Amino acid sequence: MIAPISTLGALALECSAPMARSALAREAAAELADHVAADLARFLPGVEQVDLALAAAAFDPSELLRAGWPVHAALDALVERAPEPHLPRVMGFGAHEGQMPEGLEPDPALHGGPLRLVPFVLRGDPRALAAVAREMEENLLEKGMAQAATAFFAQRAFNAPMEHARYLSLNDLLAMTAMQYEHAGIAPLWPLIESALLTPEREEWLDAPPEPLLRWDGSEVRIALMDLPAWSEHGFQPQGIDAERLGRAFERFQMRQQQFAAVLGSHGIPVRFDHCGTGDDPRQVLRA
């Protein structure tokens, strides 16, 4: 017997105000899963031949984009343990007494963003799933608008005004997040995040003064921590800045470091600050 495999996706809900609730009860979860199954059957030929499992909770994108895809992995583990009275199955996992299953509880500290993601897993025979996965990557971003019934149900269930509801593959989500980070002015950080998620064995640097100096070393991101004299000595201050504005520029540099550390932390990427004093080579410090 060939072991089943999985492919990962999400229902993306773009909201004009924060959601009143971030998780649905079991009955609502089952109903949302039925809506999603009907939608996917419209533009993913063969999807009815594989299992669909949905976690009826709305996550920040950074919670899904973590090493090992932990939210999807927790959902996939539930599918593997679920009884098989008939195949394929449509399953919606929701909250019981206000509590989602382990690994499927959104982080309240990341609640309130305009884009929330409801993760789903397609799981089945590799031969059946391969064609579905190929269709997902080729057509889902272009064709994957949720039907009005699905969007209205999600709006009522999560109690939030929806502007758009569409389906994304994992690769679509990676591309969309990279674009959002570019618009937010933190595009220089994306190559480190991408390496941590997709090629953790590969070293990656952010070495583009006046940006902070960062290095992904295969297990964590190390950030060069400098005081003002070291920062000036090592050339991380903006070009042509005068002495009067030097202190403010250094404060902005420190804020940028903290911003990068917070974004990395939201993706579950460990961060370490390494002190670099005057006379040190900060790049050698991060290699040590």
Walkthrough of the structure:
This protein has 288 residues and is α+β, with helices and mostly antiparallel strands. The chain folds into two domains: 5-183, no CATH class; 187-287, no CATH class. The chain is 42% helix and 19% strand. The protein has ten helices and nine strands. It has helices spanning 26-43, 61-64, 70-81, 126-143, 148-158, 170-183, 190-198, 228-233, 243-266, 282-287, and strands spanning 5-15, 51-55, 90-93, 115-124, 162-169, 204-206, 214-216, 221-225, 271-275. A five-stranded mixed sheet has the order 3-2-4-1-5, sandwiched between helices. A four-stranded mixed sheet has the order 6-7-8-9. A hairpin with a 4-residue loop joins β7 and β8. α1 (26-43) runs antiparallel to α5. It is elongated and about 70 Å long. The mean pLDDT is 93.
